[in-house]
Structure formats: C-alpha cells, structure tokens
C-alpha cells in the first residue's frame, strides 16, 4: 500500500509555511523588515530550494546530475528580467511561467 502524502505531519508543515510566509510578507509591507534583511531572506530561501532539489536528485534518486542548477539559473534570470520590466505580481507570474519553454526545449 503506497504511503499517503497527506499526513498530519505534512499538513502541519504546509500550514506553518503558509503562516510564516504571510507574517514575513506583512512585516515587509509594513517596513519592519528593511531591504538588507529582505535580500538576506531571499538568498536563504533560494539556497534552501537548491539544497532540497540537490538532496532529491542525488540523495533519494541516486543520480549525479547538476542540470537542475542550470534550470534554476535560467528560471531565475528570466523571472528577474520580466519582473524588472513588469514590477507587479502579474510580472512575477509571467516570469515564473516563462521558464517552461526552456525546460521543454532542453528536456
């Protein structure tokens, strides 16, 4: 019988992450967290995503591949350029979705 993804522990982690994201967003909007700490938080979160993806590929799957870092760089660059041209949430969403053709092309 396959293990269910929707366990109580996973649900608690998701709720904690969403609440933490909401609190940090409110603190940034209120100006309590200044730009230095904001940039530091962004860098920490990006490195966490890269470490988790590396753990998934190398640790769990057992494959040695650093291609995910290249895809992350393409996605970050395209999201950054589009978000700079369209500085709102629509631009951020468009920047995130712009990476999809590159993934389809390279995979």
Count of DSSP helices? 5
Morphology = globular
Number of extended strands = 0
Q: How much β-strand is present in the residues?
A: under 5%
The largest pleated sheet is described as: none
Structural overview:
- The longest helix is centred in the middle third of the chain and has 26 residues, at 35-60.
- The protein is globular and about 45 Å long.
- It contains five helices and no strands.
- By secondary structure, the protein is mainly α.
Can you give keywords for this protein?
107 residues; mainly alpha; 0% strand; single chain; 79% helix
SSE order and pairing:
Blueprint (H helix, E strand, L loop, with lengths): L7 H23 L4 H26 L6 H19 L3 H9 L2 H7 L1
Helix pairs in contact: 3-4
């Amino acid at each position: 019988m396959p293990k269910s993804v929707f366990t109580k522990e996973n649900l608690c982690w998701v709720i904690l992450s969403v609440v933490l994201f909401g609190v940090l967003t409110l603190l940034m909007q209120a100006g309590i967290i200044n730009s230095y700490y904001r940039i530091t938080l962004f860098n920490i979160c990006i490195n966490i995503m890269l470490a988790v993806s590396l753990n998934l590929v190398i640790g769990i799957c057992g494959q040695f591949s650093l291609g995910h870092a290249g895809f992350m760089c393409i996605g970050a660059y395209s999201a950054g350029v589009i978000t700079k041209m369209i500085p709102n949430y629509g631009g951020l969403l468009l920047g995130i979705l712009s990476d999809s053709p590159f993934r389809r092309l390279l995979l």
